[in-house]
Design goal:
Blueprint: H1 2-16, E1 21-22, H2 25-31, E2 45-46, H3 51-63, H4 66-69
Antiparallel strand pairs: 1-2
Length: 70
Amino acid sequence: MITNFTDALNAFQSALGQENVNTDSSLLQEYQTATFETKNSILAIVRPNNTQEVQQCLKIANQFNLERSL
């Protein structure tokens, strides 16, 4: 699972640029704040800038089975 995630992060950074993929723990903690109880956690913030980049992100997520492995 961790290898898949690390590889996926590298792929996201290649596709979007390192500045658009954030794993800073203090920022992730901010984004995890919810108004309801949840056990989900945010492992990374990915910021695509256009439709093509969103499509690339979906391909990467599917390639690394992120929805199934996290």
